[in-house]
Design goal:
The chain has about 80 residues and is mostly helical. The protein has one domain (about 5-70). It is about 50% helix and about 5% strand. The protein contains two helices and two strands. It has helices at about 5-30, 45-60; strands at about 35-40, 65-70. It has a two-stranded parallel ribbon. It starts with 6 loop residues before the first helix and ends in a 12-residue tail after the last strand.
Length: about 80
């Protein structure tokens, strides 16, 4: 469990997560040319995923490998009582 002592630490954590996600996608693109990257996440990760995807897409430029986000949809079954 991570404890962030203040708001500044939270922003640092979010920025580091964005940079790390973009770096992993850049590595995958170099290691596996033409690979398509999909970012996804839950809660805070779901908010970070589209921003990381935009960062990578901007870095790749037009005609670069595809980048997308994949939302997670959870359907909860209703219990009949």
């Amino acid at each position: 469990m991570h404890v962030l002592p203040d708001v500044a630490a939270f922003f640092t954590h979010v920025c580091a997560s964005l940079m790390e996600s973009a770096a992993v996608a850049a590595w995958a693109g170099k290691e596996y040319p033409g690979v398509h990257t999909c970012f996804t996440g839950v809660s805070l990760g779901g908010s970070i995923a589209p921003v990381a995807a935009l960062m990578v897409a901007a870095q790749n430029g037009p005609g670069g490998p595809g980048v997308a986000t994949c939302p997670i949809v959870v359907r909860r079954r209703r219990l009949n009582r």
